[in-house]
Structures are given as structure tokens and as C-alpha cells.
Amino acid sequence: KQEVTQIPAALSVPEGENLVLNCSFTDSAIYNLQWFRQDPGKGLTSLLLIQSSQREQTSGRLNASLDKSSGRSTLYIAASQPGDSATYLCAVVNNAGNMLTFGGGTRLMVKP
Amino acid sequence: DTAVSQTPKYLVTQMGNDKSIKCEQNLGHDTMYWYKQDSKKFLKIMFSYNNKELIINETVPNRFSPKSPDKAHLNLHINSLELGDSAVYFCASSLSSGTYNEQFFGPGTRLTVL
After folding, report:
1. Distance of alpha carbon A59 from alpha carbon A98, whole angstroms
2. Which of residues 3-22 of B touch A (CB under 8 A)?
3. pLDDT per residue as tens digits for the range A3-51
4. Chain B window 58-87: which residues touch A at a Cβ cutoff of 8 Å?
5. CA–CA separation, B15 and B54 (whole Å)
6. Cβ-contact A79, A60 below 8 angstroms
């Protein structure tokens, strides 16, 4: 059974810092991996989706990498801003392509 | 022009009651999902429907019964509510056709059972 772990569980950084969020999964037979953002009391916003054949994806200040063989993904946030404060969730899709398994999330606080 | 919508946003009810949560998507997707986010913020899939057919049912008590009247709607009915059912329930949708696309999530329904 797939298990997804995110480290750290919480992170507090001063504005402007570059930071890395980590995600690991136990079963490397995945279809793809998706990073989400969740603001308090709100739904999930998709940030980046990496197909299993890809190594990384970039969107603005966000860069996500995927190393399928080692069961790892990282989300890199450049020049963090207070508006980046949220919970970041990593989720992997099974090979059938129909099921997301989520990690526990990393709660990020960027201080002005 | 909301993509995935859920009603109600908040639901407070007594133990033992029966309640429903509705979900609608206007993205033309053919697959819809229900997720539960517990008090520890852990998100877990409950059900998945593709073209109105149940695809995934992840060890959810049979007090929970999803119903999909058409591809754009997936409702969740819960019988005999228990305290442990208190959580945020998220609906999501995606397009299948052999290639996985992104899942788009609704805003969530916060259910509180007293």
C-alpha cells in the first residue's frame, strides 16, 4: 500500500528565503505526482503536476522535481513571500491513474 | 463560473441524523471523487466515480453512500451520523480517457457532528 510522507511537518522562514519541501513515497510505481497548496479553511489549489516520465516542472517561483526510482520529490520555492504561507500537500497517483494518495502536508509560515 | 462546487459549506448536525452533501462540476470531467480530511489535516480518498460508475471504495462504512445522477454530479449521503464523521469533505473531479489529468478540488464542506 502506498504511503506518502512529507518533511518537515511545519516550517517557519523569514521573507526572501529559498526553501525546499520534501516528499517521499514507498511505491515507485506511480503514474504522476501532484503538489497542492491549501490555505486555512479553503480547498486545494493544484500547483504543479509531474508525469512519471518527467524529472521536474516549473511554474514561476516554484520548481518541483521527481526521482521516481528513489521515491522522492521536492518542491523548491524561491524568494519566499508572506503570501506563500499555507499548507503544501504532495500526492502521488497510482499506476491505474485513478487514485491520489496524499502526504500529511508541510505547514509553511513566511514571516515579513 | 465555479469549476467544482459543493453545498453546503458548513453543516452542523446531531448524532444519529442523516445528511447529504452535494457536489457539481462544470469542467466536463468524467471522474469525480470524495475525500475526507480529518482533524489532523490528513486527506484520504473515500470514493471515485467514473461515468457514474463506482471505481474506488476505500474501506468506508456503508453508512456513507455516494450517488452520481450524472457525470457532473456526485452527492454523498451519510446515515446515522457519528461523532467521528466530523471532518472536512472535499469533492474533486478529473478527466480520464486513459491519461491521468489534474484533479480539481471543491472548497470543502465542514461537517460537525454534535
Report:
1. 24
2. 4
3. 999 999 999 999 999 999 999 999 988 889 999 999 988 889 999 999 8
4. none
5. 27
6. no
Cβ neighbours of residue A60 closer than 8 Å, sequence gap 6 or more: none
d(CA B96, CA A93): 13
| Beta strands A62-67 and A56-59, pairing class | antiparallel
DSSP result, B13-53:
E-TT--EEEEEEE-S--SEEEEEEE-TT--EEEEEEEETTE
Contacts of B90 in chain A (CB under 8 A): 43-44
Contacts of B104 in chain A (CB under 8 A): 46
Determine the distance in angstroms separating the CA of B75 from the nearest CA of chain A, rounded to an integer: 17
CA dihedral B96, B101, B107, B112 (to 10 degrees): 60
Encode B48-104 in three state secondary structure: EEECCEEEEECCCCCCEEEEEEECCEEEEEECCCCHHHCEEEEEEEECCCCCCCCCE
Q: Which of A44, A50, A85 lies closest to A64, judged by CA?
A: A50
Distance CA A70, CA B12 (A): 44
Q: Which of B10, B30, B100, B102 would you mutate first to test chain A, the one with the most A CBs within 10 A?
A: B100
How many residues are recorded in chain A?
A: 112
Contact A12, A109 (CB under 8 A): yes
pLDDT in tens, B39-79: 877 899 998 888 878 877 777 888 999 999 998 999 999 99
